[in-house]
Amino acid sequence: MRILIAAMQPLLRQMIESAISAEPDMDIAGPIETNESICAAAERLHADVLIAGPGAKHQAVQLLRELPELKVFTISGDGRWATHYELRLSQDILADVSLSRLVSAVRDAVVQANDVVGSS
Amino acid sequence: MTLLSQGPSQEPASRKEKSSLGLSRRAAFPNSFGRGNRAMEPRKSNHGSTDMFLTASLEHLDYLDALARQLCADVVITSKSDAFSKMMKETLQLSRPILFVMGANGRQVAQYALLLDQTTVENLCLSNLVDAVRAAAKARNQSIMENKEVDHVG
Fold this sequence. Notes:
The structure holds two protein chains of two kinds. Chain A has four helices and five strands; from the N terminus they run E-H-E-H-E-H-E-E-H. Chain A has helices spanning 10-21, 38-44, 60-66, 99-119; strands spanning 2-6, 27-29, 49-52, 71-75, 82-94.
């Protein structure tokens, strides 16, 4: 498992890196190069998981749009909680579909997807 | 919103006409890549939806994912059941489009989408962060394996 750590206070970063490095099944990916975006680094380094500071919260959805398989954790500023963002496959079966209902379902699905992106 | 339909197309590629859904159909194969196709405005119609239009119709699934990307499709509608494995294997590279697979009888539709899921780990300590990261990475790898298996079945 390749873990990328980014945009985090040095002390917290050091602690997390130490904990990750102690795990035999995990590797620290990196470093991120100068002027390289988190997304570009995650892609280049084939990261499975990104752990980032609270500032990356607003980038999480954009990151997942670019790299939908990535798992993203953001750590709060006080280090007391983390938020895990991921994309999950959802399946709905629509029975007895008429053309108008299909059009309505298409519209609802796109509006819902836009709401998720817009509200993040 | 932009729709990409998969199935036999009866009309010439350059011809615009109403589809059976009452949507404005445009068989469009833009000559440039990227998201520029967003600028294409839906045409108003008397009895169709004015906020949707069809961008293309494909004979084969081979280029479905590539064309969906190129046309910035929000939604793909198909009657091919193997479109699921084809799209989801590659659509995991995309957060969109949403995929609608119509059943053979035309009355049942399966809707697939990737939705954002957000969970909070409270009372964080290094050990439970490591556990959560491991679980997430395993779920990711499991998801990739499952999609490969689906592909083999298809």
